Amino acid sequence: MLTENGIIQTVPASDGTAYQEYVLTRKGEGLFPIIVMYRQWGECNLYKSDENHSSLIYKHNRQPVGAIHLATENGAKLQKDDTTVKKIA
Known about the structure:
- The protein has 2 domains: about 1-30, no CATH class; about 30-89, no CATH class.
- The protein contains 2 helices and 4 strands; from the N terminus they run E-E-H-H-E-E.
- The two termini are about 30 Å apart.
- The strands form 2 sheets. It has a two-stranded antiparallel ribbon with strand order 1-2. A two-stranded antiparallel ribbon has the order 3-4.
- By secondary structure, the protein is α+β, with helices and mostly antiparallel strands.
């Protein structure tokens, strides 16, 4: 379904093997912040404190990527109770 909707595509494996791997398309790259948020949520909530798991690392300094937070226009941390939905005509 993700490939049919142009979110991911298969490409030859980066290690040169006969396998293929999934990569985000340009359209799918717009979902990158959401994917990172889901990943970070999973790292905090789905592993035991002593359980090994992978971590998203910033390539340039080899440090873990900081937690993503939603923010208001002036940079204040946004909480769920700070929002409402408004229909735009």
